[in-house]
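Duplicate of #3305? Posting structure anyway:
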């Protein structure tokens, strides 16, 4: 007697390499921008080659040494005799170094079924930052993690995150406005 079980079938993806590109750009405004400085990319475009259905990571990290005072000791001794007195004061400071991480890593996992089908990309962003150091205290360190899945046509840039705020349309001023919106974009190519 044969028993058939319904098992989920994982769709096989073509076994080929894909190129995933990431860039950060300023959001285009409808107005006119005049500058004496040449335009600079906000983030150097990053490119990684990855097997279809597999994970790849891009990391920009920095380890920063932070020196701090572990302990302070003070000693005092005095000696006195008739007509003579002596005192001695000494102390010491013991320093220590703590390494703190700052930076960002982005992990991507593209899945492209082939043909004219869109690419599904799992995106995981991990950030670590170190606050400004105030006084002798060690700065606070914060970590964030964001995970999302996006679908995009093969070969087209799509925005996966934004920060800042753009200038409202119809606004004209000679004074500095709000910070221009920055867009994090991704594109997958099948070379």
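Output from current build:
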């Amino acid at each position: 007697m044969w028993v058939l079980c319904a098992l989920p079938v994982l769709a096989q993806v073509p076994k080929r390499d894909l190129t995933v590109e990431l860039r950060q750009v300023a959001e285009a405004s409808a107005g006119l921008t005049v500058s004496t400085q040449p335009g600079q990319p906000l983030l150097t475009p990053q490119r990684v080659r990855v097997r279809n259905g597999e994970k790849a990571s891009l990391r920009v990290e920095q380890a920063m040494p932070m020196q701090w005072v572990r302990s302070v000791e003070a000693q005092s001794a005095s000696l006195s005799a008739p007509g003579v007195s002596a005192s001695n004061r000494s102390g010491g400071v013991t320093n220590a170094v703590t390494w703190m991480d700052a930076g960002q890593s982005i992990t991507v996992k593209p899945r492209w079924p082939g043909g004219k089908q869109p690419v599904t990309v799992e995106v995981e962003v991990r950030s670590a930052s170190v606050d400004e150091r105030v006084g002798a205290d060690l700065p606070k360190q914060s970590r964030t993690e964001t995970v999302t899945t996006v679908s995009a046509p093969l070969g087209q840039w799509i925005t996966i995150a934004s920060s800042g705020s753009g200038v409202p349309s119809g606004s004209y001023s000679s004074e500095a406005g709000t910070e221009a919106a920055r867009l994090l974009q991704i594109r997958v190519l099948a070379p």
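Confirmed duplicate; merging threads. The two ends are 49 Å apart (CA to CA). The first strand starts at residue 17 and ends at 26.
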